[in-house]
Design brief:
The complex is a heterodimer of chains A (119) and B (154). Chain A has 119 residues and is an alpha/beta fold. Chain A is built from 4 helices and 5 strands. Helices cover 34% and strands 33% of the residues of chain A. In chain B, α2 packs antiparallel against α3 and α3 packs antiparallel against α5. The longest helix of chain B is centred in the middle third of the chain and has 22 residues. The chains are: A alpha/beta (119), B alpha+beta (154).
C-alpha cells in the first residue's frame, strides 16, 4: 500500500560557490523509508559533505514515522557538523515540520532555486 | 462527550464506515475516504490536509500499538458527517493508553535525550478541533476526532 520511497543524490554548487549535496526523495516517507532516507544519507562521504539539501518536491505523503527518519538524519548530520536544509514541501507539510520543531534546526525553502540562492 | 455535543453531531448525520486490515499503509484508505467526505461537506483544502494527517496517525497508532500489527484484527473507522462538523472514530482491539505521552521536544530529540519518534498523538491533537482517547472496558479502544466546518472561511 505504501509507495516505495526512491532517493537519489545530486551535487550542485551554489551561486556563492559552496558545494551542496541534494538528497531527492520520491514517493511516501514512512516507516518503510529507512534505507531511502537514512541509508542514502549515511552513504554520503562525511569528509566532503557539509551542506545537505533535502528535496521533497515529489513526496506526497509523510507520516510521523517518516518525520522521525528525517529527525534521525538531522541528528546524525548535526553530530557530523553538517548543515541540513529542505525545500519542496507542500504548505501542509511545511506547517507540520514547523509544528514539530524541525524548522528550528533545518531551514525550509520553497524550491531549489530559493535554497541555492540563500546558501 | 456532553449531551449537547452528541446531539449536535447526531443531527442530520451521514455515516460512512470502513474496516481496515492491521497492515501499515492501509491508513491511506481511511485518509482518502475521509478526504472525500470532507470535500463533500465543503471543508477547505487546508483543513482536509489536516484531517488526512490526523486520521492517518490515528490509524497507524491503531494498527501498530492497538492491534500490534496482527492482521487477524481489523481497525474500524466511522466517519459521521454532521451539519457543522465531521466526527471520526478509529477503533482497535487494544487496551488503550493509561496516560498521554509527553509533548515531543525537538531540542531533547536533537540532543539524544528522547527518541526521534512519538509525534503521532501530538499531530492529531494539533490538527483537529477535538481529540479524545477512550480505553474501552470490553477490550476495544478508540480515538475520537472532531473537525469543525468553518463556514465563514469556507
Amino acid at each position: 500500500m505504501q509507495s516505495e520511497t526512491k532517493s537519489r543524490v545530486d551535487q550542485l554548487t551554489t551561486p556563492a560557490g559552496h558545494s551542496v549535496t541534494i538528497l531527492r526523495f520520491e514517493g511516501d516517507i514512512a516507516s518503510t523509508s529507512k534505507d531511502a532516507v537514512l541509508g542514502a544519507y549515511q552513504a554520503l562521504p562525511k569528509a566532503t559533505t557539509k551542506l545537505i539539501l533535502l528535496d521533497f518536491t515529489k513526496v506526497d505523503y509523510i507520516n510521523s514515522s517518516g518525520i522521525a527518519l528525517v529527525i534521525q538524519l538531522m541528528i546524525e548530520a548535526s553530530n557530523s557538523e553538517q548543515k541540513v536544509y529542505a525545500f519542496g514541501l507542500s504548505a501542509h507539510f511545511t506547517k507540520v515540520f514547523t509544528m514539530v520543531g524541525i524548522t528550528k534546526y533545518a531551514q525550509l525553502f520553497a524550491d531549489q532555486d530559493a535554497a541555492l540562492a540563500a546558501l | 462527550m456532553s449531551d449537547s455535543k452528541a446531539a449536535a453531531v447526531k443531527a442530520k448525520t451521514t455515516t460512512v464506515e470502513l474496516r481496515l486490515p492491521s497492515r501499515m499503509g492501509y491508513e491511506k484508505v481511511a485518509m482518502s475516504t475521509a478526504a472525500s467526505v470532507a470535500k463533500l461537506m465543503g471543508f477547505r483544502e487546508d483543513r482536509i490536509e489536516d484531517l488526512k494527517t490526523a486520521i492517518a496517525e490515528a490509524c497507524i497508532n491503531a494498527i501498530e500499538h492497538g492491534n500490534r500489527l496482527n492482521e487477524k484484527l481489523s481497525v474500524g473507522v466511522v466517519l459521521s458527517a454532521g451539519e457543522n462538523a465531521l466526527e471520526v472514530k478509529v477503533m482497535d482491539d487494544g487496551v488503550g493508553m493509561k496516560k498521554q505521552p509527553a509533548k515531543p521536544d525537538i531540542d531533547r530529540k536533537m540532543h539524544g535525550e528522547e527518541g526521534p519518534r512519538g509525534m503521532g498523538m501530538f499531530l492529531i491533537q494539533a490538527l483537529v478541533d477535538e481529540a479524545e482517547w477512550v480505553a474501552g472496558t470490553d477490550g476495544h479502544s478508540y480515538v475520537r476526532l472532531v473537525i469543525r466546518l468553518d463556514k465563514e472561511a469556507a
